[in-house]
Amino acid sequence: MASRLLFRLQVLYLHLVHAVDRLRLRVWMSQHPGVSIHPEASTNLVAARIDVAPTGKLTIGRGVVAERIRDGVRISVAAGAEVVIEDDVWLRSELGPLFLRAFEGGRIRIGRGTQLNSCMLSSKSEIDVGENVLLGMGSRVFDSDQHAVDTEHPEVSLPVRIGDHVWIAADSTILRGATIGRESVVGTRSLVRGIVEPHTVVTGNPARLYSKVGDRASLQGR
């Protein structure tokens, strides 16, 4: 009897925490008109560090999941920038922080069912990540040089596009202008610039063709 009562109290406490967190998210959204968080997104997002400028836009879709780790997910959206996180995305941060940063004029889109593992995406132009992508721990995606080299070599920004069902393994770096075709694999600690054809495995620094790869969409059950 005592154990059953304790269980019921624990369930009641968890429901209360969930309700309070949902209320906190609603209050926070009311103070940030450019922010839209779906009611069925994880309430663990209250533990994230989210900064959105008055003219920035952040959209978080249904079923987006995050761990309840303080500042584990860090999202920064500058003036005129936009971050869109579509349905069923996993913002995974238990092995390290996850960074999404859109500078002024930048745009980041994370497609449905994608899993981001303690990685970094930084945009001054556009980063478009397709559906059911796996982005490994410690990986980085940059659509800009970030800084000018000197007066004769200014900073350059070019869109990065990552196709559906791509797997980018741990500690890889994707540079400005890269396009990674659907159902491709980028090996651990690879450096990607330019075009990766669909259904290929690339590896190395710079990344080069290693082999072909077959149907990854069915492998992921999509």
Short description:
The protein is mainly beta and 222 residues long. The protein contains 1 helix and 23 strands.
Describe the protein's architecture and organization.
The protein has 222 residues and is mainly beta. It has a single domain (2-212), classed as Hexapeptide repeat proteins (UDP N-Acetylglucosamine Acyltransferase, domain 1, 3 Solenoid). It is built from 1 helix and 23 strands. It has one helix at residues 2-30; strands spanning 35-37, 49-52, 57-60, 65-66, 73-77, 82-85, 90-92, 98-102, 107-110, 115-117, 120-123, 127-129, 134-135, 140-142, 160-162, 167-168, 173-174, 179-180, 185-186, 191-192, 195-196, 200-203, 208-212. The strands form 3 sheets. The protein has an 8-stranded parallel beta sheet. It has an 8-stranded mixed beta sheet with strand order 4-7-10-13-16-19-22-23, with no helix packed on it. Strands 2-5-8-11-14-17-20 form a 7-stranded parallel beta sheet, with no helix packed on it. A hairpin with a 4-residue loop joins strand 22 (200-203) and strand 23. The protein is globular. The termini are far apart. The model has no long low-confidence stretch (mean pLDDT 91).
Characteristic terms for this protein:
single chain, about 220 residues, mainly beta, UDP N-Acetylglucosamine Acyltransferase, domain 1, eight-stranded parallel beta sheet
